[in-house]
Amino acid sequence: MGVDVPVRQRRDTIEINATRVEDAFRQLEDFLQRMTGVTENLQFGPDHWQATVNILEQLHEQYFAQQADPQGRPWPELSPVTIAQKGHSRILVDTSDLMNSLTNSSAQYAVRQATGDSYTFGTSRPFAGVHQSGAGRIPQRKHTGISDENLRHVENVIADTVVELMFEIMA
After folding, report:
1. Alpha-carbon distance values, 167 to 17, 39, 91, 102, 170 (Å)
2. Nearest CA to 108 among 125, 94, 86?
3. Is the separation of the CB atoms in 56 and 124 below 8 Å?
4. What is the pTM of this model?
5. pLDDT tens-digit profile of 106-141?
6. Are strands 14-16 and 7-9 parallel, antiparallel or unpaired?
């Protein structure tokens, strides 16, 4: 937003008319007030969350591929007895329900809930909490979460979405 300030120059004086500058400041003030009103009443719909959901699903796919928690720490190995019972050594993968619920929004047990200015992401798979926290002889294997670095990335995506939404509303 540029402001043309009329300037008249004579030989010995310069006269500057600040009326246009004041008008520009008023316009800026009005714009900022409208933006504030938009942000106070901002409502995200499911479509507005899609970029964030995509990132979260990709991150959780990596956790299962790397068999590691959100901080990159490897999950405790399976016991030989568990490997013999399952017939394989893939950690937290028996029926693939848990993994699918965290990597595919339409999978059974997937929890994806948009509520205006918040979003819930997770799984309702029975026993998921036992693996997430550990219990008794079952070691903790965190499969849901986000590192600080990835959280900053998600926050930036959300901020970009907010700005886009604000400009859509302001248009």
Report:
1. 32, 11, 45, 32, 5
2. 125
3. no
4. 0.76
5. 999 999 998 877 899 999 999 999 999 999 999 999
6. antiparallel
